[in-house]
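INFO  loader      accepted 1 record
INFO  loader      residues=173
INFO  predictor   begin
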Amino acid sequence: KTYPWIVIKQEHFPRVFWTRKHIKDGSRYYGPYASLGMMHIILGMIRELFPLRTCNLNLAPENIAKGKYKVCLEYQIGNCNGPCEGYQSEENYAQNLSDIKDILNGKIAVVTNRLKEQMLAAVEDLNFEGAHKFKLKLDKLANYQSKSTVVNSSITNVDVFSIAIDESYAFVN
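INFO  predictor   done
INFO  writer      dumping tokens
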């Protein structure tokens, strides 16, 4: 077997899923993950925070405008915002993907700051239910700590070292 990767496909309303095949088709791959369980935990947390599509439909703008697709069960239970029928804009979907990419790259502070700003804006608009949803997302991100190493697949030549310093000794590894 090969190591699992999390992939963000290069398409309209990109899908986020895991795979063991690293295909050079312009998609973004994150990993490899040494632990399949940890990779599923990360992917599950991403799906809880950001509702994304899981279908294989071709969501080109002309197909959506023609009304070729209907929302599925994932939309009905709240796991998807319905981009297939135009219920979610491509800009909103791209913002969610930007947050996901930041999380996968280890930039959780960027996502946390953005969620705090959105939460405060919701409070100013007296939208307390919306602010509570942002608060729940912030809590989930605060509890998230990855124990696996995520490496960008584009890094090919790199030297890694560590230094541990004590009062009288220093260790280089």
